[in-house]
Amino acid sequence: MPELPEVETVRRGLEPAMARQIVIRVEQRRADLRFPFPTRFRARLEGQTITALSRRAKYLLLDLSSGEVLVMHLGMSGRFTVEIGGEKAGTASFHYETSADAPHDHVVFHLSNGARVTYNDPRRFGYMDLIPRSDLATSKHFRLMGIEPLGNVLNGDVIRTLYQDKKTPLKAALLDQRLIAGLGNIYVCEALHRSGLSPTRLAGTLTTDRGSMKGKADLLATTIREVLGEAIEAGGSSLRDYAQTDGSLGYFQHRFRVYDREGEKCPTPLCPGTIERIVQSGRSTFYCKSCQK
Hints:
By secondary structure, this protein is an alpha+beta fold. It folds into two domains: 4-135, N-terminal domain of MutM-like DNA repair proteins, CATH 3.20.190.10; 156-236 and 253-288, Helicase, Ruva Protein, domain 3. It is 21% helix and 25% strand. The strands form three sheets. The protein has a six-stranded antiparallel β-sheet. It has a four-stranded antiparallel β-sheet with strand order 2-3-4-9. A two-stranded antiparallel ribbon has the order 11-12. A hairpin with a 2-residue loop joins strand 5 (79-84) and strand 6. Helix 3 packs across helix 6 (216-233). The longest helix is centred in the C-terminal third of the chain and has 18 residues, at 216-233.
């Protein structure tokens, strides 16, 4: 499943080809993906200008001149391929297989600049929806969604407020999309290690202003933004076969301190610990018991 940096990398790759272009024609090659396509899907897209291409958490948003927004989720295996003038300009993807064969090309957008943008999804866990921009915040996709972790909105005060009296493990609280939207397993593990915080500690302990915990919420907020920012700049993480729009792979996985490094020495200077793996809520957590408290 792509996390926020992968989705943001896809957005940046698609924007030059799609933004401010008219949707000339849409090929819808099946009735559904994970869910059925919206009614009159093609008709509501064709003839519209794409006024903006943005992201909310792990969703891609195409604003249309009609006032509707095309909401897209990549699911487990979704990918976009961009072709201009019959030549591939690259792929924007997060997928399991290295080949994108035609039977899994489910939606094709033909744009006014000659670009052909194809959505390929072998597992069909992705989906698309059309929602009026005025209803977006209250739609089923976003009405319970928390704040974005990038930018200046997320800070120590916000974390202290969100986690006040929370008795759930800190990692579980960070993955709660109702509080902070877009955080996923990989980058939460990395942010917690950099912050020196145990994934098993109670989230509510971050709200104390006593002892060693004072300032930890500020550090965690800063670290989350830094880890996500670095991953976006690196083009996401190539855990299986993630590619940018120019076809190159993302390389943030080479900077992982703890994720998928069970049994390795902790990279924190002077720490004698070893990276351990535990399971929390059905997901693997990687951390160092020695330096994460």
